[in-house]
Design goal:
CATH superfamily of the largest domain: Response regulator
Strand content: 15-25%
CATH class of the largest domain: Alpha Beta
Order of helices and strands: EHEHEHEHEHEHEHEHEHEHHHEEEH
Shape: globular
Distance between the termini: 39 Å
């Protein structure tokens, strides 16, 4: 089963379901997994806690063996039922607190707060920054954990933390020049993860200081940020857990080819790419099960899997060795991608880096 808000305005996620559905169809054409055909159920949680809770109940009633590509803003209503049933969530987007601590969460990448914090470590250790501003969208959500990780990473790499600067969520940042002046007066670099307003602010900052260096959580900036920034894009790097669409990794190539051919109306995103990767992980783990494939046998197999690969979409994952960062206990890989801009597109910049080195001395 895939649980996601299919028509969410800011991040429509029907593509998550389509990614897993298409993957299953491709695998079924080759005989399924150990001779078993895969049936994929999609459940639109509509960002409604009551609907999310019903999706979880349906997963139990339908004897779902795994949840793949889950992205939910109402996961708090989903986890109690999923935890009680012991159904593993593989390759989920870790958005809510339960996503980051549930023993049934098996993520393929670190969560967004780790990407945010890693931006500070990267700016200090790679770009030589001394004073780093923290700019985030003010979503109204609890920022205790993200800000704590940002400050921890900054302190660990010997830089000075400035902020936080919390910007409005709505598009249109009328006071961008004033915010930019305040940031430039205090910092020589910035971690700016604030959606479209972040792009507006980046432009305002770089007009005042062309030498200012910027890093951002890849999930928290528009996918076309190199085009929007134009010649200024060289000042920016983004941090994420997934290879960019320009990668020649087999998984990325297959994802783009099949999604464009079979789900042409879906807006693609890193979330749907992660859903595609989640099926690779499920297929690899389930294929090694000699007996019945159940939620319990998949969970047991996950706990013994040391080298789960996703055809290059993510770094390999060792599910036998959790690597907690701060209060986030469900992390199994701290290898992340750094992206840059080239000819108006997002490209990988250098090799993978270890986010854990920024947080753990």
């Amino acid at each position: 089963m895939v649980i996601a808000p299919f028509t969410l305005a800011v991040q429509p996620s029907k593509a998550n379901y389509d990614a897993v559905r298409i993957q299953a169809a491709l695998q079924n054409a080759k005989g399924g997994i150990n001779g078993h055909k895969i049936n994929v159920i999609g459940c639109d949680d509509q960002s409604d806690p009551n609907v999310g809770a019903q999706c979880a109940k349906e997963a139990v009633q339908d004897h779902v063996v795994a949840l793949l590509g889950v992205f939910s803003l109402v996961s708090a209503s989903i986890w109690p039922t999923i935890n009680a049933a012991g159904i593993p969530e593989i390759g989920l987007v870790q958005y809510g607190p339960g996503d980051m601590i549930s023993p049934n969460a098996w993520p393929l990448t670190p969560p967004a707060p780790v990407f945010n914090g890693s931006a500070f470590g990267y700016l200090a250790t790679v770009k030589g920054c001394k004073r780093i501003a923290d700019v985030q969208a003010n979503t109204g959500a609890d920022t205790t954990v993200p800000l704590a990780l940002d400050k921890q990473a900054t302190a660990n790499v010997g830089a000075t933390y400035e902020g936080p600067f919390l910007t409005p969520v709505t598009t249109g940042l009328a006071d961008a020049p004033a915010i930019a002046r305040s940031i430039v007066s205090k910092a020589d670099c910035g971690s700016i993860s604030a959606g479209q307003n972040g792009i507006v602010l980046m432009k305002a900052i770089l007009q005042q200081d062309p030498n200012f260096k910027i890093a951002a959580n890849e999930l928290a900036v528009p996918g076309n940020w190199p085009t929007q920034l134009g010649s200024q894009a060289s000042a920016v790097n983004t941090i994420g857990g997934l290879a960019p669409d320009t990668s020649t990794a087999p998984g990325v190539v297959s994802y783009l080819k099949n999604m464009k051919a079979q789900a042409a109306n879906d807006p693609l995103s890193d979330f749907s790419k992660l859903a595609w990767a989640s099926f690779y992980a499920f297929d690899q783990v389930a294929s090694g099960i000699s007996g019945p494939i159940t939620a319990q046998s998949v969970t047991a197999a996950l706990g013994k899997s040391t080298d789960v690969t996703t055809e290059g979409i993510t770094a390999p994952v060792n599910f036998t060795k959790p690597t907690p960062i701060g209060q986030i206990t469900r992390i199994f890989s701290t290898q992340i991608f750094v992206m840059g801009a080239q000819n108006g597109t997002v490209v990988q910049s250098g090799g993978l880096i270890n986010a854990g080195s920024y947080f753990n001395k």
